[in-house]
Amino acid sequence: MLHGGSTRMGRTLENKQEIVAELKETLKDSQLAIVIDYNGLSVAEITNLRQQLRPSGSVCKVTKNTLMRIAIQGQSNWEPLNGLLKGSNAFLLIKEDFGSAIKAYQAFQKVSKKTEVRGGVMEGRLLSESDVKALGDLPSKEQLMAQIAGAINGVATQLAVGINEVPGSLARALNAYVEKDQDGSNDEAA
């Protein structure tokens, strides 16, 4: 019986090590971690949140604070998470598209009314709830690219109009010079 218990504990330890390794791997690919208090959410609601986050390339991890503490140990860019590791936490780990992920979470939260943002960490900095909200208000990568493309197209259009205007301006200037010259030579002839 004692032997069976130790085997079970060994498996549990292996499972914990797998969870920590998976957390480390996910954190390595993430640029932003948001900690939410998920107290009161059902398994179905957490599954729903995960589905809403998936299109943005983000994941929602529900894990013990102790395991997250082990996963971030020695990683200076994630160590500020220690200040948020209390209570029932879920971790939104976001690779790139902060705006879409935060908006997806906010839409979920608006419907469920059961979660709240404790804070986040990005590039080694602890973020408040308002910082996280501000990140969510930033334009998405696609919107930024569209704005840049629009600006480039606007400059290109102005440049093209300007270049097309040069021959016309040059022609008018030459014509005016010729007319002035003709007017001047007529005066001399008279």
From TrEMBL:
**Which keywords does this Swiss-Prot/TrEMBL entry list?**
Ribonucleoprotein, Ribosomal protein, RNA-binding, rRNA-binding
**Listed CDD domains:** Ribosomal_L10
KW Transmembrane helix (keyword) present: no
**Biological-process GO terms, alphabetical:** translation
GO molecular function terms noted in the UniProt entry: large ribosomal subunit rRNA binding; structural constituent of ribosome
Among the entry's GO cellular component annotations, what is one? Answer: large ribosomal subunit
Note the SUPFAM superfamilies from the entry: Ribosomal protein L10-like
Q: How does it assemble?
A: Part of the ribosomal stalk of the 50S ribosomal subunit. The N-terminus interacts with L11 and the large rRNA to form the base of the stalk. The C-terminus forms an elongated spine to which L12 dimers bind in a sequential fashion forming a multimeric L10(L12)X complex.
Family label:
Belongs to the universal ribosomal protein uL10 family.
Return the HAMAP family for the record: Ribosomal_uL10
Q: What does this protein do?
A: Forms part of the ribosomal stalk, playing a central role in the interaction of the ribosome with GTP-bound translation factors.
> In its UniProt entry, what is this protein called?
Large ribosomal subunit protein uL10
Q: Which organism does this sequence originate in?
A: Planktothrix agardhii (strain NIVA-CYA 126/8)
Q: What does the record give as the organism's lineage?
A: Bacteria, Bacillati, Cyanobacteriota, Cyanophyceae, Oscillatoriophycideae
The gene name on file is: rplJ
